[in-house]
Amino acid sequence: MSTLNPKRVDMKFGVEFVPYLKLDALVKLARLVERSGFEQIWVCDHYHNRHIYPVLTQLALETSRVKLGPGVTNPYLVHPTVTAAAVATLNEISRGRTLLGISAGDPFFLATVGIEQRKPVTAVREAVHIIRELLAGNRVSFEGELFSCRNAGLRFKPANKIPIYIGGRRRRMLELAGSVADGALINASHPDDIKESIKYIEGGLRSSGRTSKTFDFVAYLVVSVGGDLKRARDVTRGVVSFVTSSAPHASLERHGIEIEDVESIRRLLRAGELKKARAAVTERMIDAFSVCGTVDELAARIEELKRHGITRTVIGSPMGPEPAKAVQSIAKALL
User: Fold this and answer.
1) How far is C-alpha 312 from the geometric centre of its chain's CA atoms?
2) Contact indicator for 315, 14 with CB cutoff of 8 Å
3) 300 vs 2: CA distance, rounded Å
4) Which domain CATH number covers 307?
5) What is the span of the domain harbouring residue 327?
6) FRET label pair with 228: which of 122, 148, 185, 207, CA 20 to 30 Å apart?
7) What tens digit of pLDDT does each residue of 172-187 get?
8) Strand locations in the chain, DSSP E?
9) With contact defined as beta carbons under 8 Å apart, do 244 and 234 qualify?
10) How far is the C-alpha of 256 from the C-alpha of 250, rounded, in Å?
11) Does the predicted TM-score (pTM) go above 0.85?
């Protein structure tokens, strides 16, 4: 049991759901998240899980205050015009509570359906431009490198602005977030990686003449909280395998992770050998790319991230060996 003061951590919080769980379980968890005081629910978007927009629709209908949206979708599987219509509809269903998180997707999952992750920063930049214009009620005629629109428009306009967050870890994507987005979902858990990421975002803000005062710097953490440390660490392996596979080279070097070990995981992921990729995750990878242990240890990490400039923390998958218990213990200690 944590001995923390419930108000110890002055931070805004969200959670991530991965919809491999049954919808009834997600609804129950969403209600708990809302009652516990979390402000956001981000639902991860991969085709092999339950489809994101029916899930988000059900969660919106079963909650009344928490904000929610895809965290993150990508522009390769769905054209940006369709994403604009989807989030605008979700915003109507949720009565103005919708968020949009977007990035370039996972290259390994895209490859399984024959899609190349071509020019990822350009793809996200063009997608955000198209989506923003459509959500603003404008018609879009646009010829980009990857996407085009010819007098495209929605027949309805959201009643409020839908915030757009760009997710990522690499320099150019985070600079893009600072240039055009309302916030960044930083796919990192270690303070040194977060510091580097914030520097990139601030560079994007400066280059576009924007201020950081209203920008949401979000640490999108891989979290596993539980009393059994070995079990808590073990359940992170699946997520950590993907984080490791796409981590910048500088981050791998910083944490002393051997590139041969990373290449082994990449080969397994490309082959669809997810269980073997999970087993290939090293203890050093778990240390670098997740926060595991007690709620007090999580609180200490969040306090450190706040000092570096983080304005919001997302408690990302898996949350813990027992997600509902993890939500309750985190909320009791931190919110």
Assistant:
1) 12
2) yes
3) 12
4) 3.20.20.30
5) 12-236+290-334
6) 185
7) 999 999 999 999 999 9
8) 12-17, 40-43, 67-70, 100-102, 140-143, 148-152, 164-168, 183-186, 216-225, 291-293, 312-319
9) no
10) 10
11) yes
